[in-house]
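Trying the structure run again after the queue cleared.
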Amino acid sequence: MISIKTPEEIAKMKKAGHLNYLTREYLKTKIAPGITTKEIDDLAGEFITSHGGVASSKGFEGYPGNICVSVNEEVVHGIGSDRVLKNGDIVSIDIVVGLDGYQADAAETVAVGDINKEKTYLLKHTEAALYAGLKEVKNGVKLGCVSARIEDYAKKHRLGVVHELVGHGIGREMHEEPDVPNFGKYNTGVVLKTGMTIAVEPMLTAGKRYVRVLSDDWTIVTQDKKPSAHFEHTIVVTDDGYEILTGE
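Done. Tokens:
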């Protein structure tokens, strides 16, 4: 069942979202050539807990990390390890923060030092695809319009749209109804209503859309080893648009 959040619940989610934002901003000051993905994960966990929050990914369905740290061709669910980031890498930080019983989920892909034109293009247009989709959001619009707009933007810019991974509703739980695909047909799907909270998260690739799961049973990578980017915000639907809950 899709839940409509009260103003009090939305306020709590916004506080969780603010801590998510602060965590991302903190990590971006630390991401540089020479840091390991485990160090990034540890820094995230320490920052979230020191500010009274919970790193909700930790232990979720057995996931071992505080956050997901995915490098280059890793699309999502990368686990912090002794892998050292080097100049020219891109790294996606996907963070779920729990605070006062409510969740906020956001992700962004960060350049490590100087990156090439292909990766620069990928990051620019994956983030832009997110906002293209969000422009469709308002009370009374069907969710398929958001999904289709993201897909149209990605295809226009010759980027692959991963089908196996989708956004989702969010609130007390990390994953709630409905699913929010990054592909679809206009004027289909559930009707968005004021007070609905969803995580919209394009996961696009510089090559083909096909992915596979590594032997750790978590990390998802592109089959063609082309780089992938991931941008995500938790939002609340309003009468005439949306509000981002994981911004400042």
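The chain has a mean pLDDT of 98. Worth checking whether this holds up in the mutant runs.
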